[in-house]
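Try this one yourself first.
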């Protein structure tokens, strides 16, 4: 693109649209929905960046990617340089470009957002990562000489992968212990193919393995071995726990034990990890309802609803107790779900699930809600409207109202400080109350985001390195604050 074209596009008020599969076509397949920018589109969009002196987008990024730095390189057509800049702070850019809630992070703080549309940072990041992988642009980063120290990382979600990658770069041995037969955590078993193709996750994990991260699969720590055994018997110098928050939460209403009621976690795992979506190649048992109801309003609910459509449902309804403004899902996912025909029953709350004489779901009794005063989270509290009950006909209910901490590992660590909901307490560096044990990601914060989990992995890796290498004064081990 010539300099004059770049100058012209600098004043574009709106962002370059993302080519996508048509809604009527994509609701019947599992292929990725957004098709990605071309080189020219990426250059055009990047040229909108004002290269701010104090870029608010960077401070709003949990891993502080040099956003204007890589956008300037893309605008000038040097994609290899852009990829290098991103990789300095983000080991999984093809993933983050696709699933980060950019509107609440970098793009939400872009100065252009005050008057125009913010720079489409996520779309350009995705382009750079995909282009780099396709054209083999980025080699592996160089590692520091071996320190001989060994760190065990429990869990291979974004927190564990980032911690392991950063530790290896600093010269330590990192071994990941993963419970499932595939690494990636929610990136593999939760987020569906049409939003995050598995081959992208596999490629980014392969890069970490080529870098030297050792992956041990089918290892449920807490069952096969304990953290204490890893530290004392297996000679690991430090442990990072990144086991996520995968314990499903249920509604606690009658009928939840009927056939045809799933937690979103189980439903998505059957579809993604056990490949129900590749029927008939994989004959994974999963109830395929005609009229599916998903309870919840987050990313997980949108993923479950859009998966149900693709598995052949005639109608899919999202039941959410607050209004559209409070939906916690990424804006793009809500938009895509609506375009694909997902029906939104907002300000609606389930009261009971009703079954037929075969013990299968046939309906859900719901109640209308209105918004009252703000609650502890600052969001307006949903309040039931008297005598507003109605019956929603449905033959499959998917509950997507959040997840909790799985106690399987933590109950094998007596004395480990947890909060009242079972999450691990850490200090600002990821140190837990047990010496030589760090933690981060959803098992500390509760369900959050990919990039926050990565940020926590990075912070802990930095502190583990400091502790193991005794670079500078090492502060005494301080137990995590109770809170
Ligand atoms: P996880 O990704 O949960 O990984 C934990 C890993 O630890 C898993 O592989 C698990 O098998 C393993 N493990 C657990 N216990 C043990 C054990 N005892 N021994 C060994 N291994 C163990 N975030 C976004 O930013 N954008 C999105 O669009 C988005 N969509 C989502 C959609 C769904 C369906 C879900 C469920 C979540 C979504 N999230 C999204 C949230 C995001 O995926 C999580 O915040 C993030 O994955 C947390 O990372 P983590 O590394 O802490 O844990
Ligand atoms: Fe560019 Fe927006 Fe970041 Fe400024 S805030 S540097 S315009 S992306």
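Now uncover the answer:
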């Amino acid at each position: 693109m010539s300099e004059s074209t770049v100058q012209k596009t600098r004043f574009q008020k709106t962002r370059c649209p993302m080519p996508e599969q048509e809604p009527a076509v994509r609701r019947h397949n599992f292929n990725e929905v957004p098709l990605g920018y071309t080189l020219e589109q990426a250059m055009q969009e990047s040229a909108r960046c004002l290269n701010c002196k104090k870029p608010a987008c960077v401070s709003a990024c949990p891993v502080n990617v040099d956003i204007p730095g890589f956008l300037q390189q893309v605008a000038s057509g040097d994609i290899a340089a852009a990829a290098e800049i991103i990789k300095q702070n983000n080991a999984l850019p093809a993933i983050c470009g696709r699933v980060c809630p950019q509107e609440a992070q970098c793009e939400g703080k872009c100065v252009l957002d005050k008057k125009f549309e913010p720079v489409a940072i996520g779309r350009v990041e995705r382009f750079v990562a995909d282009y780099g992988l396709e054209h083999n642009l980025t080699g592996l980063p160089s590692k520091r000489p071996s320190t001989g120290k060994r760190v065990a990382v429990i869990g291979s979600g974004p927190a564990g992968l980032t911690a392991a990658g950063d530790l290896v770069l600093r010269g330590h041995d990192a071994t990941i212990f993963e419970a499932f037969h595939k690494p990636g955590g929610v990136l593999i078993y939760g987020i569906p193919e049409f939003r995050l193709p598995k081959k992208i996750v596999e490629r980014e994990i392969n890069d970490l393995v080529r870098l030297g991260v050792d992956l041990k699969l089918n290892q449920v720590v807490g069952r096969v071995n304990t953290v204490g055994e890893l530290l004392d018997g297996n000679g690991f110098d430090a442990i990072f726990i990144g086991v996520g928050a995968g314990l499903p939460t249920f509604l606690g209403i009658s009928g939840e034990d009927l056939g045809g009621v799933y937690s979103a976690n189980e439903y998505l795992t059957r579809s993604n990890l056990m490949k129900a979506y590749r029927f008939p190649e994989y004959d994974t048992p999963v109830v395929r309802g005609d009229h599916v109801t998903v309870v919840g309003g987050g990313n997980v609910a949108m993923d479950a609803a859009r998966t149900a459509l693709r598995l052949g449902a005639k109608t899919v309804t999202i039941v959410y107790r607050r209004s559209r403004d409070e939906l916690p899902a990424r804006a793009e996912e809500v938009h895509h779900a609506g375009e694909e025909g997902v029906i939104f029953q907002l300000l609606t709350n389930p009261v009971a699930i009703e079954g037929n004489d075969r013990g299968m779901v046939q309906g859900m009794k719901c109640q209308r809600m209105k918004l009252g005063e703000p609650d502890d989270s600052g969001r307006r509290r949903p309040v039931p409207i008297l005598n507003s009950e109605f019956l929603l006909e449905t033959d499959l209910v998917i509950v997507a109202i959040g997840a909790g901490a799985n106690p399987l590992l933590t109950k094998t660590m007596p004395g480990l400080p947890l909060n009242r909901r079972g999450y691990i307490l850490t200090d600002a560096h990821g140190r837990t109350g047990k010496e030589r044990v760090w933690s981060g990601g959803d098992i500390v914060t509760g369900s959050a985001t990919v990039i926050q989990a990565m940020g926590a992995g990075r912070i802990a890796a930095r502190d583990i390195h400091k502790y193991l290498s005794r670079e500078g004064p090492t502060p005494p081990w301080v137990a995590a604050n109770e809170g």
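Discussion: The mean pLDDT is 91. The longest helix spans residues 450-469.
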